[in-house]
Amino acid sequence: MSIPNNDLLAFTLAHPFFEETMTWSFAGGDAYLEHPGVLHIEPEQAPRHSVVLSAGIHGNETAPIELVNALVQQILAGELELNTRLLVVLGHPKAMLEGTRFCDVNLNRLFCGAWQRYEGMEVERAKHLEASVKRFFDDHHVGEKFHYDLHTAIRGSQYEKFAVHPFTNGKSYSLAQFAFHAACDIEAVLLSHQPATTFSYHSYATHGAHAATVELGQVKPFGENDLTRLSAIHDSLVALLNKAELAEKPVKDMKLFEVIDVLTKDSEDYQLNIPSDLKNFTGFEAGFVLAESSLGQYMIEQEGDAIVFPNTQLPVGQRAGLVVRVKDWSEF
Ligand SMILES: O=C(O)CCC(=O)N[C@@H](CCC(=O)O)C(=O)O
Ligand SMILES: [Zn+2]
After folding, report:
1. pLDDT band at 25, cuts 50/70/90?
2. Ligand 1: which residues within 6 Å by Cβ?
């Protein structure tokens, strides 16, 4: 038994709560569907790295889901020879069907065991995804571990494609990863300043994988994405999976930012003093009151400090945005 037309996305949407596992061989390796949308592929040849590609952790972020599904179709059809181990995760099938970011709670806040502190339908999914990633990386023996968690942003952005690098806690950054981001046509990299409970941070901190959350444009419904805008990342992923090589371009082509503060919605009357169509990475004057609520306010400290991921449509206690500052590559 295998997936009809090798179409993981169609199969996942048709069977979002499918509970049986499926194993089959194809010209190029062995495939194992462990949960809806979670496909583990072992190549026929000796693998040279272990790669996790996830998309649709937020159900309405469809462009990366279409990109990853196309790669899976090529692999299962024997058109793209795999030389790495591969775990594909289409993150949130129910939210994909409903065209929403999440159903009960934001799945991308539930990793690193944070699911134990939440309730909602995403809790089981986070638990299963952590277990699948653990099984996959526990069986890694050769080369390096990679996890790229692909998203699209709610808003427009000064930099259409950008990556969020996990907090390293003083460990050195990998220049090869930055060069790979540049080859993927990523225009900006954001360095996190503290641990998180996101999927990419989980793989970085728990499994020692090179990892990033990668934003690939703006949220659009299935079928409305212009995948030609993702051709550089498509080609770089093909080179990684097929040649086991990290594509590279000069990092100085990308802007570098560091997160300096996390805005947290601290009460129901919390508001951001920005227009609803303000783009990610828009900078402000020093002294501008960016956020306020009955409990306090947040003032911009330095001219040019900018906001990324502003959002107040979330429960009290959750992240309402990141304040970021330009950093020079020479500071590395
Ligand atoms: O556009 C937005 O406001 C959110 C887009 C998105 O889903 N971003 C990720 C970033 C995760 C990270 O910080 O690594 C998220 O919010 O989960
Ligand atoms: Zn997302």
Report:
1. very high
2. 58, 108, 151, 153-155, 164, 196, 198, 200, 213, 309, 311
Residue in 105, 123, 129 with CA at minimum distance from that of residue 55: 129
Nearest-ligand number for the alpha carbon of 202: 1
> Angle 231-243/62-76 helices, nearest 10 degrees?
40
Strands 85-90 and 296-299: unpaired
How far is the centre of ligand 2, averaged over its atoms, from the C-alpha of 69 (Å)?
Answer: 17
Q: Of 170, 166, 134, 135, nearest to 148 (Cα)? A: 166
Q: What is the pLDDT of residue 253?
A: 87
Is the interface score ipTM higher than 0.95? yes
Distance 152 CA to ligand 2 centre (A): 6
Q: Is 301 a catalytic residue?
A: no
Question: Per-residue pLDDT tens for 112-143?
Answer: 999 999 999 999 999 999 999 999 999 999 99
